[in-house]
User: Fold this.
Amino acid sequence: MVEQHPLRGARVVIGMSGGVDSSVSAWLLKQQGYDVVGLFMKNWEDDDDSEYCSSRQDWLDAASVADVVGVDIEAVNFAAEYKDRVFADFLREYSAGRTPNPDVLCNAEIKFKAFLDHAMGLGADYIATGHYARVRRIETAQGVRSQLLKAVDLTKDQSYFLHRLNQQQLARTLFPLGEVRKTEVRRIAREIGLPNAAKKDSTGICFIGERPFREFLNRYLPTHPGPMRTPEGLDLGQHQGLAFYTLGQRRGLGIGGVHGAQRSDGTADAWYVARKDMAANVLYVVQGHDHPWLLNPALRAQDASWIAGEPPAPGTYGAKTRYRQADAACRLLVAGVAGFELSFAEPQWAVTPGQSAVVYDGDVCLGGGIIA
Assistant:
């Protein structure tokens, strides 16, 4: 038996970012009869007035939307929590040569922890966000449990970023856009006259924004140049520091088609980052998208988090090793709280340590871990 929607009139505190998704979410909740309160989260303060990351305009947009929708809104500053719980981990991971996904950690530590705690202090029955995902309540022998499902609009599904949420968090969470397509969200925004109806979607995380990534990291991590080498031992140039590169990267290597095998028409396959030797400070690059060094038949993940509170049984599932990737058929070989192993039906391209491997059973997101 599936639990019905929470009661009309329940108080819902919704995170309003100034973007169109959370704005339409607030309007939908109001239409559904909830007592809605908006909360604008300020998570970053360094160079906040720069062209890349200005939360001031976002706050103005969120406040304007709240006025149109007819809800109260307040701003809360989580910058200290963000720096301590998310950004410090981000720098540690890059320093160790891995490529972290701060959006995953931000959801687990800020949006569904610090924000949830603050909302409960405001008397909230539930929190809501503009994420594209669904929560399903089901009856089990242990009582009502929450499942995290993919969004109906699979092109916008964000369950990958939410896979570390637990039962306590999901039980208190609503995702108004789970059943709504993005085109419909834009249409509603125009129809009800939201001031941000045509606002461009934000890309990436606020503290980087649209700025050049290496330029940003340079402010926090030292350069440590070393050789850029082929599997055959040929040095092609120098890298600036292993922290500044990620597996599968092809832009910004500075070697272009100058070296390596040429085609008959004089062009050459692109070069890709394939491995990092942290001990020797060597960046290995390979030529061609399908080079064997870029293909992984299996992976091991650590720091696992399972939505049900316990790992799924070994068996056949789907998995994503990066956002926007189609589910790859795999076998879950070993699964526990510490970690798990996946074996893929087809080798996966550029499986990257530090990123998240997320396991699915059809539309149901089971959880995941950090690729080791």
